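Supplementary Note 3. Input sequence used for the single-chain structure prediction.
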Amino acid sequence: MTATKTYKCQTCGREVERAPEDIDRSDCCQALWIESEPLPVCTGPGSAEHTRFDAEDEPCDDGRGG
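The predicted structure, written as discrete structure tokens, is reproduced below.
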């Protein structure tokens, strides 16, 4: 079994998870798929009292997505 990767449509931004050998042209726009960059691991505090209130950085992966 081959591992899947997340790909994004170059035109509309739709994301899909597929095996690298199954990627051709997008089903939605017939555009090229580009490999989507994973979100960085979140290093901010995780409690309700310490939410990222004053963090100016971009969204990150808090580990709940699977």
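DSSP finds no helices and three strands in the chain. Strands lie at 5-9, 15-18, 33-35.
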